[in-house]
Amino acid sequence: MRTQVGIIGAGPAGLLLSHLLHLRGIDSVVLEIRSREYCEGRVRAGVLEQGTVDILTEAGVADRLHREGLVHHGIELRYGGKGHRIAFERLVPGRAITVYGQQEVVKDLFEARFAAGGTIHFEVPDVELHDIDTDHPSITFQGQRLECDFIAGCDGFHGVSRKSIPEGALTIYERTYPFAWLGVLAKVPPSTEELIYAYTEDGFALHSMRGPEISRLYLQVPPDASLDEWPDDRIWAELKRRLETIPDWELTTGPIIERGITPMRSFVAEPMRYGRLFLAGDAAHIVPPTGAKGLNLAAADVRMLAEAISHWYATGSDELLDRYSDACLKRIWRAQHFSWWMTTLLHTFDTDDAYGRRLQRSYLDYVTSSEAAATTLAENYVGVPFERFG
Ligand code: FAD
Ligand code: DHB
């Protein structure tokens, strides 16, 4: 079996890369360890930057996104008994975010790939990479060999691609946090029009949504928390305690239809390339979800990877392939900092002393009263513009 680009992983990174390559006349095969149903049912991120919406729109996979996505021009920071709006329309005119579930993006991409005759093998448990430091790399799975010109490792943090790179060839930068997020999807109309990021002395909470009938909510929980300890009434009580902190505001409760616990980690592997293997998305980097950057970074990576690979086919030149890792890392490190900063600002740290809390309060007051500080938050949240590549 032969293809031009072998793609490991059918998450947002792998599927979007496959589609962007197809639009440039380049053939790919996607290998995914899970079933299509599992991939489509996996509830994760929900905030798309303007640039991500633009990539999906240009790729022709955003019709439903434009119909059903919720365009937001601000977020609320809630603390100290008050809500403070960060107004994108004033601070970063013309830029906004769109709230649209990652699983919907994945569904739209599957549909586009299959409509275009794309090849995706599901439930492939035994992917192995070979000869990645030569110009004839290959992938074996289920007794078959897929020969390719390039391999794209889009298989997330726990995937096989990054682990196939010899020890010592990558430098790892990492930080873990002393808490996790408990996330729920609830069949109840959102109690807010815009997202609320709430800081309390008892921990962080976030109110997001998926549409007029579905709310998405998150709670800071201990890093070793288990779902068994969090029955529905405890989840709602804790959400109310952390969100009902301003006068006359009430959180409407309802049936919880999905729940999960996400560990919090910052991680970067450099460079994002070894020979003919290119890493993209969570396979190369993870951010804590507070800044809503994970999915957006994955889209930015594959936008550049598709460009670099198509430049090679068009000209035979390695120039863009050689620049891929550095170009991605510049944006990634900005998002790393922003995500670490939002996380540090809004969460309660176990080890936090009174001094640490005073620092958080001081910075929250600064961000909600200074136009300059609010603009810093806003321009990072909506996503810094793409730099020219290619
Ligand atoms: P993934 O979406 O992880 O896709 C990788 C794909 O590769 C998966 O389909 C996986 O099944 C497949 N795969 C793995 N191993 C193999 C293998 N050996 N062989 C073949 N296929 C393989 N970001 C936010 O911004 N906000 C959030 O609220 C948020 N919540 C999250 C919750 C969880 C539980 C997780 C894990 C992540 C969350 N993220 C969030 C991050 C965001 O969802 C990711 O950044 C995004 O999914 C990255 O896309 P990706 O395609 O790089 O990786
Ligand atoms: C969502 C997730 C995030 O991590 C975030 O910062 C904002 C919203 C969400 O799932 O809607």
Automatic annotation (TrEMBL):
Protein keywords: FAD, Flavoprotein, Monooxygenase, Oxidoreductase
InterPro entries tied to this protein: FAD-bd (IPR002938), FAD/NAD-bd_sf (IPR036188), HB_mOase (IPR012733), RIFMO-like (IPR050641)
The keyword Oxidoreductase is annotated on this UniProt entry: yes
FAD-binding domain span: 2-338
PANTHER family: P-HYDROXYBENZOATE HYDROXYLASE, TRK SYSTEM POTASSIUM UPTAKE PROTEIN
NCBIfam families found in the cross-reference section: pbenz_hydroxyl (TIGR02360), PRK08243.1 (NF006091)
Organism whose genome encodes this protein: Thermopolyspora flexuosa
Protein name: p-hydroxybenzoate 3-monooxygenase
GO BP: benzoate catabolic process
Single annotated GO MF: FAD binding
Keyword set includes Oxidoreductase: yes
